[in-house]
Design brief:
The protein is mainly alpha-helical. The protein has one domain: P1 Nuclease (Orthogonal Bundle). It contains 12 helices and 5 strands. The strands form 2 sheets. The protein has a 3-stranded mixed beta sheet. A two-stranded parallel sheet has the order 1-2. Helix 2 runs antiparallel to helix 4, helix 3 packs across helix 7 and helix 4 packs across helix 7. The termini are far apart.
Length: about 290
């Protein structure tokens, strides 16, 4: 029993805090995938923008690599007096029991899908100062990761699962959002026999990539509606009854969730690479405006 308790304590120290959307580890993996799948020309342009890092005035939150960019927007949120207004940019939850509306819950562009598009436009605008474009790059890379985490889009009156206490196998006392942000995603992308960080073939990139921010949000919402909530609460009728505020994911639930979480990380990485390529391309293809 003593060994079990020590193991649980050690595991708890490794689980990311719920404020760090999709977890430090998973976000950096999306950046690794993106960096591995962009062209040398795009990598060179990213490095040039990184030289303006000091002008951002965030020495406590480094922004010297694309991996730094993938977690920078979470890091700066610690300075709430300066960056608190960005908190709503990390998600755009929509009720899983209502018809999906890509324009809802985004007043003034304060949601993850709108901010991906805004950041892409800013990054693509070569008339702007490098440090302004660098900030946009960090927001774009991070938010493109966030929108692929299902519970940043799907919700059942519980703040995307944050209010639903859930056990993760033998680990008690987490919440549903936290599980998909941290331990489940980390397990999904940690198999050395099947690494997610590699150069994907053209066919794989075509299959994993494509779409726009609103499409990616809809995908996450659908996963929440059809898998995350039904699996966590062992019912296909999640919209026909009130769900309990506490549940537990069994080992079978976790095993079934792993390939879904893994694919979302892979899709995020490939799509971040696509965003970077289009932003840095001559005459860049800028994402169209949404209503």
């Amino acid at each position: 029993m003593r060994h079990l308790l020590l193991a649980l304590c050690a595991f708890a120290l490794l689980v990311p805090a719920p404020a760090s959307a999709w977890g430090f580890y998973a976000h950096r993996k999306t950046a690794d995938i993106a960096e591995t799948n962009v062209s040398p020309e795009a990598r060179a342009k990213i490095r040039r923008l990184m030289r303006s890092e000091a002008l951002l005035g965030t020495p406590e939150c480094p922004l010297a690599t694309i991996q730094d960019a993938s977690v920078w927007p979470d890091c700066i949120r610690r300075s709430f007096w300066r960056w608190g207004y960005t908190a709503a940019w990390h998600y755009r939850t929509a009720p899983i029991c209502e018809t999906f509306n890509p324009r809802a819950n985004c007043s003034g562009g304060n949601c993850v899908t709108a901010q991906i598009e805004r950041a892409h436009r800013v990054l693509a605008d070569e008339s702007l100062p490098d440090h302004v474009r660098l900030e946009a790059l960090a927001f774009m890379v991070h938010f493109a990761g966030d929108v692929h985490m299902p519970l940043h889009s799907g919700d059942k009156e519980d703040r995307g699962g944050n209010d639903r206490e859930a056990d993760y196998g033998i680990v008690p006392g987490l919440n549903l959002h936290w599980i998909w942000d941290g331990p489940l995603a980390e397990r999904a992308i940690s198999d050395p026999a099947d690494p997610v960080v590699r150069r994907y073939t053209a066919a794989e990139r075509a299959e994993l990539g494509g779409g726009m921010a609103a499409d990616w949000g809809r995908e996450s919402w659908e996963i929440s509606r059809s898998f995350v909530y039904p699996t966590a609460f062992d019912t296909e009728s999640v919209c026909e009854a009130d769900l309990p505020m506490k549940t537990a994911l069994t080992q079978d639930d976790i095993t079934r969730g792993v390939p879904i979480a893994k694919r979302r990380v892979q899709q995020a990485g490939v799509r971040i690479a696509e965003l970077l390529e289009s932003a840095f391309a001559p005459g860049p293809l800028v994402l169209p405006e949404r209503d």
